[in-house]
Structure formats: C-alpha cells, structure tokens
Amino acid sequence: MSLVLLDTHAWVWLLNGSDRLGPKARKAIRRSMEQAAVLVSAISPWEVAMHVSKGRLVLDRDVGEWVQAALAPPAIRLIPLTPEIAVASTRLPGILHADPADRIIAATARHCGAILMTDDRLLLEYGTSKHLKIIQASES
User: Fold this and answer.
1) What does pTM read for this prediction?
2) What structural domains does the chain harbor?
3) Cα separation, 31 vs 29, whole angstroms
4) 95-129, pLDDT tens digit by residue?
5) Sheet hosting strand 76-79, strand order edge to edge
C-alpha cells in the first residue's frame, strides 16, 4: 500500500471528524499513517483559505489557526510545492481540467508515488486513465 495524499476536502473531512470519509478511506489513511504519514499538498492550505474567504467553508476558528492546527499532528506531512511539481502540473499525461489547484494536487500525488484520496468527480475520472492512483474518499 502506498502513502495517501489527501485532496483538500478529504483533509478537511479528516480533521473535522466528518463521517463523509468512508470505511475504505479511513482504512487507507490508517495504513498510510502506519507507514509514515498522510500527505497534504502545499496548495491545500491556500484552497481552504479561499473557500473560507468565499463563504463556501465555515471553520470553528480563524482559518490561519485552523491550518496551523491541521498541520501540527506528526501523522500529517505537508508536501512543498517544488519547481518540479509546479512544472509537472503543466505536463500531466492525458486530459485533466485546467483548475490549477487540482493539477498541483495531482502532480504532487504522482511526484510522491502516493494514492490521491478525493471525491472530486473530475479527479476521479482522471484516475480511470491510470495516470493517477485514486481512492474515492466517500466510498464504503
């Protein structure tokens, strides 16, 4: 089993204790934590802050404090946006939509050899191309 990289919404669900994460996802997260950590792309804190600023996400505290707390557990590892990942996000094989955050998350997962955990329909479809290993976050 590979390490798991959480899409932004899956990261929020995990940290907020949401039952939207299905049993298969929770099992994969536990296994990833046993191996080393669960991975989060550097673009995810930006995405969380953007969703909060647009009123699409409500947190129990200031977004800066939430991000700090969400990255504090040793089982969560932030993967930096390196030049290699940035360039790779523009050269992904196959067809993936143009959303920069999703492209960076996909490129980060590929760079780390991780399985991307998401419920994003377009990323799930991209995963069927075999260019990216995917686990559906809400799957039972």
Assistant:
1) 0.95
2) 4-136 (3.40.50.1010)
3) 5
4) 998 999 999 999 999 999 999 999 999 999 999 99
5) 76-79, 38-41, 4-6, 115-118, 134-136
